[in-house]
Design a protein that fits this description.
about 110 residues, 3-stranded parallel sheet, two-stranded parallel sheet, 4 helices
């Protein structure tokens, strides 16, 4: 995943809601997550596609994140992307894995 040009978020949303709605993909926070999950899925014989969230360019739409989300936080980028895709297509097979950060996110929601 090192040599890539990030795709604008509107194109990513269109890809998974219109062009390839049945594609299964899991977005991850970073390179180490990608290496870990893709390696283990391959060893287990699981046919899944993984992608780092930094393959998505969030600046293209001038997105304003909700007040409880930070634009430069990979956790929030994953949450935002997946929620936007699922708003447009509730039967989407696009998911994300958020590791340790999920506790912070849940705690913030409960405040």
């Amino acid at each position: 995943m090192s040599n890539f040009i990030p795709r604008p978020i509107d194109r990513v949303i269109n890809l998974y809601t219109v062009l390839e709605p049945s594609k299964k993909i899991i977005f991850l926070e970073g390179k180490q997550d990608y290496q870990f999950y893709s390696t283990h899925a391959e060893k287990l014989g699981v046919n899944l596609t993984f992608s780092e969230i930094n393959t998505v360019d969030f600046s293209s739409l001038g997105i304003t994140f909700p007040p409880n989300m930070e634009r430069n936080n990979n956790r929030d980028k994953i949450i935002y992307l997946i929620s936007e895709i699922h708003k447009k297509r509730s039967d989407s097979h696009v998911y994300g894995i958020i590791d340790r950060d999920i506790l912070e996110y849940v705690r913030d929601l409960l405040k």
